[in-house]
C-alpha cells in the first residue's frame, strides 16, 4: 500500500474538468423545470475533508411543489408517443457520454471513488438511458381467450403514476439512471431524492436531461437534510403511486412500513453480504482477478461487493498469498488523482464502522495479512486489508463491511460452504469460481441469491435483472423486467 508522495490529495479544484463544465454546475432544487438556487448544506470532499460547495435543503412545501409539478406534467408525458420519449432518453445517453469525463470528476469529488471507477459508473449509468430508450416502445401486452372460452382477455401495461425515487451515495449516477430511465420510458413522471453526500451528480444529470429535452415537471430533484419527513409527506400524497428505493435494509424497512400505510407499490434494492466462493478446481489467476473487481470496485463501497471469501482448503493458501500481494500493491489516495487505485471512504463514520468490524474480528482470532488499521487524514482513509482465520461468528461475517476489507474463510466440502454462504439475512449477489460448469449450475441452485457471477467478479449489466432475495430487496431493476416496475397491468374482459 502506498500513500502517494507530495500529498496529491490537494489537487486544486479549478483545474478539474468536473468543476469547469458549466453544464454540470447546476445546484439547487429542480422543480417544474426551474432551478431554485438555494444554499445551506455543505457537500464534503471525502478525499480531503474540505467543503466543496453548499446545496439546498428542501422542506415540505418544496416536496408538495415537486409533486404538483410531476402531477401537472403526467398527462402530457404519458400521452407522449413512446418513440418520442425514447428519443429524449437516447439524447440523454449521448449527452452523458459526451460529458463523461466531467461527470466522472464530479462523482469522484463528492463520492471519493477513483476516476477509473467513476468513468465506469458514468458508462454504466448512461447505458440505462440507451437500454430503456430501446425498451420504451416494446412493452408487451397480452391477448388470449379464457380457458372456458367465455371471453377474451386483453392486458395493457399503463404507467403506474408519479414515482418517488430515493438513491444512495455509492453510485450517485447509476442508481438515479437505473430508476429515471425505466420510469420515463414507461410514461411516469418522477421526484428524485438523492443522498445528501452526493447531490451534485444528481443535479448534473437533471441538467443533462433538461438539455436532452425532458419537459418541465417530468423529472424533479429535491436535496434535503430531512429525508424521512419529506418522504413521508410525499408518500402521504394520494397522487404518488410508486416508491423506488435503493439504500440500506434498515431504511428500506422503515419506508416499506410507511408505504404500507398508503398501499403504495414499492421496489426495494437493499443491502448485500455477497459470498465469493473459490473451489479447488478454479483457475487461480482468474479467481484473483475476479476477487479484486468484486472486492475493490468503489473501494468496497458497493452493495454487490464481495463481503466473505470462502476458499476450498486445497487452494486456500495460494489464494491468500495472491490476494495479499495484490491488495498490498494498491495505491491509496484522493479519488480524483488519476494514480489512485483505492480512494477514501465516504465519511469518518464509515471508517469507524470498518475499524470496529476489523478490530472485533482480530480480537476473536483473525489475523491481517495486510492493512488492518485506519490511515491518518486529511480525508477518510482505510487501507486495503486481508483477514485470515476469521471466526464464522464474527460480526464482519454478518454485516456489510462497505470498505476495502477481504475476510477469508477456509472450507472443505460443498455442503459446508453452502451452509456458510447462506447463513445471512441478505441475498443480493454471490460469486463462484470453478472450471466445472455443471457443478457451478448445481451449486447455483442451492445459493440463496438474486444474482450469481460464475467465473466473473462483476454481475451488473443494464440489460439484466438486478436485485436480491431475502432482506436484500423486492423487485428488479434493469433488463426487460425493470420497466414493468413502473407499470400497472390493466385487464379488459371483452366479449366481442
Ligand atoms: P441509506 O442510509 O439507506 O440511504 C439511502 C437513501 O435513503 C439516501 O438518499 C438517504 O438520504 C435516504 N434516507 C435515509 N433515511 C431515510 C428515511 N427515513 N426516509 C427516506 N429516505 C431516507 O443508504 P446509504 O448509506 O446511502 O447507501 C448504502 C446502502 O445502500 C448499503 O446498504 C448498500 O448495500 C445499499 N445499496 C443497495 C443497492 C442495490 O441495488 N441493492 C445499490 C447501492 C447501494 P440521506 O443521504 O439524506 O440520509
From TrEMBL:
Enzyme active site: 269
GO biological process, one term: gamma-aminobutyric acid catabolic process
One of the Pfam families matching this protein, by short name: Aldedh
Keyword Transcription regulation appears in the UniProt entry: no
MF term (GO), any: succinate-semialdehyde dehydrogenase (NAD+) activity
InterPro entries according to UniProt: Ald_DH/histidinol_DH, Ald_DH_C, Ald_DH_CS_GLU, Ald_DH_N, Aldehyde_DH_dom, Aldehyde_DH_Superfamily
CDD domains, alphabetized: ALDH_F5_SSADH_GabD
Keywords linked to the UniProt accession: Oxidoreductase
Keyword Translocase listed: no
Residue ranges of every copy of the Aldehyde dehydrogenase domain listed in the record: 41-490
Protein family membership: Belongs to the aldehyde dehydrogenase family.
Protein name: NAD-dependent succinate-semialdehyde dehydrogenase
